[in-house]
UniProtKB/TrEMBL annotation, chain B:
One of its GO terms (molecular function) is phosphate transmembrane transporter activity. InterPro entries: MetI-like (IPR000515), MetI-like_sf (IPR035906), Phosphate_PstC (IPR011864). The chain crosses the membrane at residues 30-51, 91-112, 124-142, 162-181, 213-234, 280-300. Pfam families: BPD_transp_1. Belongs to the binding-protein-dependent transport system permease family. CysTW subfamily. The keyword Cell membrane applies. The keyword Ribonucleoprotein does not apply. It is found in: Cell membrane. Residues 87-301 form the ABC transmembrane type-1 domain. This is Phosphate transport system permease protein. GO terms for cellular component: plasma membrane.
């Protein structure tokens, strides 16, 4: 269309159209929209990949070789479960050196041990299953033939079995240097004890601080400093808290945290690297988060509630205790649960405070040496052998299930609250 | 506190209903104040301990402060304490992480705030929260068992070492992504819809409105999200401890192993270190550097929010 023959109106429209470049702008819009979609998809795909890579490690084929086959011990067709206590002890006596048997007997008299315990001992010391090679889930599913071929070549004589690394035995067994016998009971107990201390210390102090800042504090310089300080603390890297815990709780307050003050220290080698030190360190770590969450919860309580309480002659504390806290406690708890789940997953500060690298004894008091679930994951992942990666993955699954349960309960609680509010 | 201003709103004429006191009231108030003050003691504790141990560190004969700041080798065995290799690798992992987290986080936030329907947002936001709630040691496992083999299969095992900063940085970016995305999304959602409607009214497309109106209007919040993310990346420990390798090394190659500040601290303190040795004191000196850096970043981010925040009615 030439400009000469077109009507003025046409030119104007075409001009407008070109000027505003609508097709180009629309195309640009679509491209950007695709970019936004892609970014979001990448985030989702990553989350899925993350979960899959863990599941991938927790199951798969293994090549196991026993030092002595179980059938050789108990006769064909039988398993260790059917063996009597005398038979089990006889096996130990037959296959182990006398000194070793005496040592086990000294730890706990063999005759008094349960069958279950003896079977574990026989498995560990006599049968000695050894995982020679392990494969992850994805190759196990899709390249089964290749694996069987490779295993037959590299590990002749070994049994190839499909194994779930996450079993009840795994959860119930204590730590071991042999990956197929190692379990996470010690670590779970350690985590629970540490978290218990953290909650007992951080919850009352955190909520108390929030009440003070929201209800009692005047707008003074000191109070403003406290508030700013809390925000700053929430941004301090967790490893710095580890250093604080190491210097203050482990070293400075050693008589207290090792339990020596209370006569607990005898025979312990923890030197202040105890459950108590770790719990207190994590308490300091989550304190700012609990305070900030609780402050928001308290701020959400309508002022009219307080005014009417005062109007009836209540004192400030009566108002807080009987009206403000009950009205905000569910939100406070939600925030607390979320920060506790953060503490449960923390690794770096506890490594610095000094969780034990290898203990197979359950922590029995807050003055015990300990290890926690994330620490166990860290140590197993750091080892080069494949089988340790597998149990690391299984331990991660347990950790994630724990955290998910905690978070889900917090989210359900939050939804119930907002529903209640809407009905009110 | 509203009550202090009384009914008339003038402080002088206020009737303070909270005046009536019982004897226990004062005690409770004191207890609550102590709870709040514990945070101050925590900060003082951190500063005192880091500074005290750092003074011991710089006081020891092997160390001198010029060498610490500008030395290119960190080899405690032979008395070389130059922080540059550690800083360099920290900077590298953090940069890679921010290169991943900033654009992705911004785009995800724009999608969530401007494009997604209420229902999709209802699914995606909790999903991001889940991603943010996964412990960092799990990301470390992911870096070592997924990202590193992936990089090695793309670039070849001769080029990519088993432990490398690229893998750690990439996974760290994924770790920070939810933080950046949710902070940015908050900032974008806070932009009043009248701005968007005005933009549409002038004939702008959705993308033009999002990128040229909403994003600039939320700039302070986005900047704060970036800086908080950066500070998180610098302080992140478990991913680098697992995936970036042990042993400080000054290198610009992201496919080589190089230990970061945090990785070094966690490795040394995880071993058996005697109190008051140079090794023990050195982790506190490094901690001080880390503390100051992240504190500055956090303060800057809050300053940005305060100074550049556009206030809409």
């Amino acid at each position: 269309m030439s400009v000469v023959f077109s009507s003025p109106r046409d030119t104007a429209q075409e001009h407008l159209f070109r000027e505003h470049n609508l097709p180009v702008r629309r195309r640009k819009g679509l491209i950007w929209q695709a970019v936004f979609y892609a970014a979001t998809s990448i985030a989702i795909i990553t989350l899925v990949t993350l979960v899959l890579s863990i599941v991938d490690g927790a199951f798969g084929y293994v090549a196991v070789q026993n030092q002595i086959e179980v059938e050789e011990l108990v006769g064909p067709g039988r398993t260790l479960d059917s063996a009597s206590k005398q038979e089990l002890i006889a096996m130990l006596n037959e296959h182990l050196s006398r000194g070793l048997v005496r040592r086990f007997d000294f730890e706990a008299p063999l005759m008094e041990r349960s069958n279950q315990d003896l079977i574990k001992l026989v498995m560990r010391e006599v049968v000695k299953p050894q995982v020679l090679g392990s494969w992850n889930l994805v190759p196990s599913l899709f390249q089964k033939d290749l694996i069987l071929q490779e295993a037959a070549q590299r590990y002749p004589g070994a049994d190839i079995v499909f194994r779930s690394w996450l079993t009840l035995d795994f959860i119930g067994a204590s730590q071991s240097s042999i990956p197929e016998l190692a379990g996470i009971r010690t670590a779970i107990m350690g985590s629970l004890l540490v978290i218990m201390i953290t909650i007992l210390v951080a919850f009352p102090i955190g909520v108390g601080a929030a009440i003070y800042l929201e209800e009692f504090a005047s707008d003074s310089r000191l109070n403003r400093i406290i508030q700013v300080n809390i925000y700053n603390l929430s941004g301090v890297p967790s490893i710095i808290y580890g250093l604080l815990g190491l210097a203050v709780f482990v070293r400075g307050l050693e008589p207290l945290t090792s339990g020596a003050l209370f006569g607990f220290g005898a025979g312990q080698t923890a030197n202040g690297r105890t459950v108590l030190s770790a719990g207190l360190t994590l308490a300091l770590l989550v304190l700012p988060i609990i305070i900030i969450n609780a402050q928001e919860a308290i701020r959400a309580v309508p002022q009219s509630l307080r005014d009417s309480s005062y109007g009836l002659g209540a004192t400030k504390w009566q108002t807080v205790w009987h009206h403000v806290l009950p009205a905000s406690i569910d939100r406070i708890l939600t925030g607390t649960i979320l920060s506790i789940s953060r503490a449960l997953g923390e690794t770096a500060p506890i490594v610095v405070v000094g969780a034990s690298t290898f203990i197979s004894v359950d922590p029995n008091s807050i003055f015990s040496k300990f290890t926690t679930l994330p620490i166990q994951v860290y140590q197993w992942t750091a080892r080069p052998q494949g089988a340790f990666r597998n149990i690391a993955a299984a331990a991660i699954l347990v950790l994630l299930v724990l955290l998910l349960t905690l978070n889900a309960s917090a989210i359900i609680m939050r939804n119930r609250i907002s529903k209640k509010r809407r009905q009110a | 506190m509203g009550i202090k201003h009384g009914l008339s709103g003038k402080p002088e004429a206020s009737i303070d209903f909270s005046k009536r006191r019982r004897p226990a009231e004062g005690t409770i108030r004191t207890l609550l104040f102590i709870s709040a003050a514990i945070s101050i003691f925590t900060t003082i504790g951190i500063v005192v301990i880091l500074v005290e141990e750092s003074i011991l560190f710089f006081g020891s004969p092997e160390v001198d402060i010029i060498e610490f700041l500008f030395g290119t080798e960190w080899k405690p065995m032979i008395g070389e304490f130059g922080i540059l290799p550690l800083l360099n690798s920290t900077l590298m992992t953090s940069t890679i992480a921010m290169l991943v987290a900033t654009p992705l986080g911004l785009f995800v936030a724009i999608y969530l705030s401007e494009y997604a329907s209420e229902r999709v947002r209802g699914i995606l936001k909790p999903l991001l929260e889940v991603l943010a709630g996964i412990p960092t040691v799990v990301y470390g496992y992911f870096a070592l068992t997924f990202m590193t083999p992936l990089l090695r299969s793309i670039f070849g095992p001769n080029i990519v070492q088993i432990y490398n900063t690229a893998s750690a940085g990439l996974v760290m970016g994924i770790l920070i992504l939810p933080l950046v995305a949710s902070m940015t999304e908050d900032a974008l959602s806070a932009v009043p819809s009248s701005l968007r409607q005005a933009s549409y009214g002038l004939g702008a497309t959705k993308m033009e409105t999002s990128l040229q109106i909403v994003v600039p209007a939320a700039f302070s919040g986005i900047g704060a999200a970036f800086i908080v993310g950066l500070s998180r990346a610098i302080g992140e420990t478990m991913i680098v401890a697992l995936a970036a390798g042990a042993g400080p090394r000054l290198t610009a190659n992201p496919f080589e192993s190089a230990e970061t500040l945090t990785g070094y601290i966690v490795r040394i303190s995880g071993g058996d270190v005697g109190y008051d040795t140079v090794d023990y004191n050195s982790i506190f000196a490094l901690g001080l550097v880390l503390f100051i850096t992240t504190l500055m970043l956090n303060i800057i981010s809050r300053k940005i929010v305060k100074r550049f925040r556009e206030v809409y009615e």
